[in-house]
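It is worth pausing here to work through a concrete case rather than discussing structure prediction in the abstract. The textbook approach is simple: state the sequence, then state the predicted structure, then interpret. We follow exactly that order.
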Amino acid sequence: MKFFALKKTRAVGGRPSRRHAAEHPLNSSAWVLRGCALVLFVLVLGPGAEYLKQSSFFELKELKIFGCHITSPDGIISYARINKGMNLLSLNLANSSSQLEKYPYIYRAVLKRRLPGTLEIYLEERKPRAVIKFEDLYLVDEHGDIFKKADTSECSYPLLTGLTKEDLYRDSDRCFQIIRTALGLLDRIEHEERFRGAVLEIAMDKNSGLTIITSPERMEVYVGEGDFEEKIKSLWKIVDDLKERGLAPATIHLKSAQKAYITVKG
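Step two, the predicted structure:
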C-alpha cells in the first residue's frame, strides 16, 4: 500500500480562442466520453452492477491519507476495514467514514474514490487540550468533547477538576458549557508570561464558575465565568502590591475586576 502527498496543480496559459477550441481533439472525443459515462451509469444501476463490483479493473491499488498526524496509517486502514485489492465500487464510503469517526483521535473523516484504483481519506484529528479528572483521567479536545481515557503519556495537559460523571449524566449541557468556558480561560492564561512554568488546574463549579489553581507555588484565583481579561489584569496588580509588602497570596476571590477578597500565606 502506498501513501502519497497531494500535489496542487494549476492551468498554464490563456483561454483558447473559439476557433482553436472547436478544433481541439478533446472536443471531438467529448461525445465518446459522454457515451462511456452513460454506459457505465447504466451498468452500475443495472444488471452489470455486481459484475463491476467484482471487476479487477476497479481494485484498490493506491491509498492516500491526508491529515494523519497523531493517528497511525495502519490503525486507520484497520478501523476503516480497507484491504489492498478490494473493489472500490463495493466500498460503502459513508459506512467507512462513520467507522473511522469512532477512532478516538478522529473528529471527522471523508473518503473519496478516484476511479479506477485510488482511494483518498481526508482526516480532521482531535487535538487534546486538557485532561479532565473523574475517577480516572480523560482527554478533552479543543471542542470541549471528552474523547478517550488518558494514557500515562497523555497526562501533561492542563487539568480540569470539579465535575463528576454523575454531573454529566444529570446536566450534560451545563457541564459541557462550563468545560468550554474553562478551555477559553486556558487560552487566555496558558501562554501568558507570568503563568509560564506553573502547572495549571482549573476547578469547575456548575454554580459559581471557575477557579485557577497554580503549582508548585500554590495560588487559588476565583474568576467566575466572565470578564477574564480584566480580572487577570487585576490579579497581577494585587500580586505585585502584596509582594511590595512582603506578602504572598493564598487565595484571591475576584468578584469582579474591581472587587476582590484576599487571603495571604503565613
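Step three, interpretation. The chain has a mean pLDDT of 85. The domain at 31-125 is CATH 3.10.20.310 (Ubiquitin-like (UB roll)).
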